[in-house]
Amino acid sequence: MRFAVLGNKLLASFLASIVSLALAIPSPATPAQAEPSFTPEQLDKIASRIALYPDPLLAQILTASTFPDQIPEAAEWADEHHYLTGAELAQAIEADHLWWDPSVQALLPFPSVLDMMASDMDWTNDLGNAVLADRSAVMDAIQRMRRKAKEYGYLRSNEYITVREGPYIEIEPVNPDFIVVPAYDPWVVFAPPPPGFYVGGAITFGFGVTIGAWFRPWGWGACRIGWGEHAIFINNVRWERGWRNRGVYVHGYPGIHRYVGANRLERHELIHRSAVERGYAHAGHAFHEGHHHR
What is the sign of the dihedral through the CA atoms of 61, 62, 63 and 67? Predict the structure, then answer.
């Protein structure tokens, strides 16, 4: 009897091992995620929301969009710490041991941008997937939309941006340390203006963020788009994340320590933006601080 019981235990253990192995082996009926594909019309629609952003900000958005799972939490952090700016904000990002990819952290000075991305995750996922699958096609779509806005008279140089037209349309900040976030309606600026419509008021450039040397570790001051090469450069190094290497590619951010989620800390007072503050940003007006930080 004792041997029978022992034999049954061994058999049960053996069967459990077989089941565990079976569960660990991927099922051949579950294929790897297929590389996404978008038509030019779909890419135009995706790109229209950010096509008129200055090139440095656009470069940071394109790279950050490839980490969509990190955007909502980063948007929440940016909202709660919106009262921090400049060196104080850069120090807070490091002090809190934030685990998101540096490309996502680079957008923390822009709560309205992260809020826009987090509030429409379908769009953010599509943008990130398109960038990973065919970055060149995304950049071509951006250029198509810029040419429309330029042709219809909406896109023009002003006190905040310089618009350069050549083989490619480039949008650069007049002051490299002050990055504006344009506010516009894609249904307006990419269509012919109706008779008598004032095109000069269709894009608002009043809302901006001062980016100083404190944010250099996140690529600011050294990020650009090589339109002719269909390339993005962060920290003056070509960003090469794509669909096939998305699980292993790590871009270089000298001076940034990469933490994991378990290291996350909170050392600051949390103050959400008010509806008035969000409204100012979404309308493209100058920053309005509705709180007094203690």
Answer: positive
Q: What is the mean pLDDT of the chain?
A: 84
> Are the beta carbons of 281 and 113 closer than 8 angstroms?
no
Tokens for 225, please give them. 């788009």
Residue whose token pair is 């100058």: 286
Dihedral over alpha carbons 33, 63, 268, 284 (to 10 degrees): -120
Rounded Cα distance between 89 and 209, Å, is 12
Q: pLDDT tens digits, residue range 211-237?
A: 989 999 999 999 999 999 999 999 999
Please give the full DSSP string across 85-101, using - where no structure is assigned: -HHHHHHHHHHTT--S-
Transcribe 21-88 into DSSP letters: HHHHSPPTTSPPPPPP---HHHHHHHHHTTTTS-HHHHHHHHHHTT-GGGHHHHHHHHHHTTT--HHH
